[in-house]
Design a protein that fits this description.
about 325 residues, alpha/beta, Quinone Oxidoreductase, Chain A, domain 1, about 30% helix, globular, oxidoreductase activity, NADPH:quinone reductase, ER
Length: about 325
Amino acid sequence: MKAFTIDRYGKKEIGHLTEVGEPELQEEDVLIQIHAASVNLLDIKIRNGEFKLILPYRLPLVLGHDVAGTVIRVGSGVRKFKSGDEVYARPDDFRIGTFAEYIAVKEGSLAHKPTKLTMEEAASIPLVGLTAWQVLVETAKLKQGQKVFIQAGSGGVGSIAIQLAKHLGAFVATTTSTRNVEWVKALGADVVIDYKQQDFATELRDYDVVLHSLGSDELEKSLQVLKPGGYLVSISGPPTPEFAAEKKLAWPLKLVLSVLSHRIRSKAKRRGIHYSFVFMRASGNQLGEISALIESGAIKPSVDRSFPFDSIAEALAYVETGRAKGKVIIKVKS
C-alpha cells in the first residue's frame, strides 16, 4: 500500500510517499480503508524529534493521528464493528500511521462516524476532540458557570474546546489574531483577546481553568489569570512526574521531566493552583460521547483546507505556518 513516511527526525525532513506492507490484523483489531486523515501539530513535533524520548518510534515511520474510513475486515475478538461500517479514530500511540491507504486500529480506540459528517469532516475531529475532552471534562472537571481560558481559539484544539466548554455551560475566553476575532466569537467565545493588540495576563482574572497550548511565557503568565484552586492544564508541556509514572517511563527520564516541570509546579503550588500535563490518549468510548454532541449540533467541525494524498508534505508545511483556522485535511481515497 502507499504511505507517507519519514526516514529520520529533523526539521529539514520532508517525508515522501512510498510502498509499505499492509498492516497485520490482530485479534482485537479493525482494518480500515482510509478515506481521509488530518494534520496535527503533533505530526510536525514528532517529525522534528521533539517527542523521541517519550515516544521512541522506529524509523522509517508513517505519520498521521486521525482517521476516517470504512471497515474492511475485523479480528476474531471484535464485536462492535463489521465490514462496511463507517468509522473514525485516533489510533493508539505506537500504532499511528493514518497517512496511508489502510490502518489497523484497536476496537477500543474506534467509534462509528457521526452520520451527519463527511469523511473529511470526521477526520478533523478525533485527536483535537479527545484532547479537549480529556482536558476540560476528565482533568479540570469543568462545570456550568465556571470560567475557562482557552488559548489559541482558532486552532484545531481551541476551536473544538470552545464549543465543548460552551456546551458544558462555561464562560469562555480565548486568544486569536485580529483577522480571526469574529470567527472565534461565532464558535461561542464570550471574550476574545486579540494577542496582536492585547495581553491576556492584564485582561483576564479569576478564571477556574486554563487550557494552555502555547509556549513557556504564556504558561507562567497563565498563573496570573487563575483563582486559587484553579486548574492550569497544558498540552504543550512541560510534562510532570505524574505523566512519567502513567507512561511507565524509565527512571532517568522521570527525573528529567521532574526537573523540567519543577519551576511551573512550584509556582502553581504557591498560588494554590493545580498544574497538569495532558498528552491525549486514544479512547473509543470518549469519541462516542463526542459523536453524540456532533449529532446534536453542539459541536461542529472546523475545516480550513483539504490536500490530496500526494501533497502531504505541502499540508504539513501549511500547518506549520500557524495560519490554519481549524483543521487541515488529507483526502486519501477519492
